[in-house]
Amino acid sequence: MLSRWTRLPFLACSLISLFSANLALGSEEAGNVIVLSGARLLDGTGRPPLEESVLVIIGDKINAVGAPNTVKYPADAKVIDCSGKTIVPGLISDHSHVGLVDGVSIKPENYNRENILRQLRQYERYGVTSVMALGLNSDLFYQLRDEQHAGKNPGADLFGADRGIGAPLGAPSAATIPVGNDQLYRPQTPEEAQAAVRDMAARHPDLIKIWVDDLLGTAPKIKPEIYRAAIQAAHGAGLRVACHIYYLDDAKTVIQAGADIIAHGVRDQPVDAQFVGLMKSASVWYIATLSLDESFYIYAEQPEWTKSAFFQAALQPALQQLLNDPSYLQKMRTNPRLPIFKKAVATNQANLKKLYDAGVQIGFGTDSGAVPLRIPGFAEHRELQLMVASGLSPAQALECATGHAAALLGLKDRGTLEAGKLADFIILDANPLQDITNTEKISAVWHRGKEVSGAITASP
Ligand SMILES: [Zn+2]
Prior knowledge:
The chain is an alpha/beta fold. Helices cover 35% and strands 16% of the residues. The strands form 5 sheets. Strands 2-6-17-18-19 form a 5-stranded mixed β-sheet, with helices on one face. Strands 12-13-14-15-16 form a 5-stranded parallel β-sheet, with helices on both faces. Strands 4-3-1-5 form a 4-stranded mixed β-sheet, covered by helices on one side. It starts with a helix and ends in a 7-residue tail after the last strand. It binds zinc ion (ZN).
């Protein structure tokens, strides 16, 4: 129990914030204090949950949060009873893509305003309130980023890595993900790589993305001298670099070249002490994307959850049709690479647990939006389940997807439910700390202090 004196600053803080909010918001919003009362609250910082909380919102921000006896609010505030619910921060994806997929098609024309805003609305409806589009963006990205930052359109907030740097005739595969010339650089020399980074830096992206992969031995890999030149140029421009990798050896080499973020899990073999040492000594972030390789086979197995409204509502009609096509599912089931994908998931999971326990910084991402079966919004909840199946606790997985995911992106204004942060959160009907699949029991999503959507129902 706090004394009268220590409680006073809360009150003073509230009044000051209320006063400035009134000035900023205009008369119709004046005095608009919203209080969510009685919910269990997980704040995303790693602290244990508050079993009973009061969350005070003014405008788009959290004004105060705490146990009922520690938080003050004005008598005329709008109080919403959230007893029996659980509040968690909005999820943040550190590795997704926008504007690549529409239905089951992947083509440059999909990078359009309407399609991207549709995807951002879907992310938000599934509680993913901020999304990093990690490469393959055309210049339209910057206009949409500005608008989402300003809250001009419904949907998740948007961050991005401009176009990114791939290998000539290599990753990312032009056959799997055909993009326009204005969505990717494929430099042939270190000088071309530096010039590509200069072009991107001039547009002020949030990160630089580089693909380092031979696509299971089927394509030429980007040369080390080219990605080293790109990383140096990015750092020279004050930008951090996220590297797509698959193999342990490449993960080590890109860290030695200065990479700041490993954008996929290591999937070819167990990580070793040298890798852990490199990750920790350079404070490199790790994004596992467990659900990526699972998406190559899981839908053909038709687990019970594929019948749920939560899953079905995430499918555009063309994708829904494809996943009901027996010949397509049979093709998936007999894919000769199936054993490779299954082993990749198992290796990725074991590596995630090992790296988490070793104290490596773990973010959150799925590669959702890169191809049709990496399904925006749904993939993020599946990723949480696969993280827990890897041995992380539900609280640890949720912390990666909120507070850590924000820290990976360098965002100080979100990711945790603390005074001064954006009021981005999900209200759940059941406790995800008991069962991580309870993150699917969405009662409401709040974004920037406003309720933006409710439960996920059968039709989108
Ligand atoms: Zn990706």
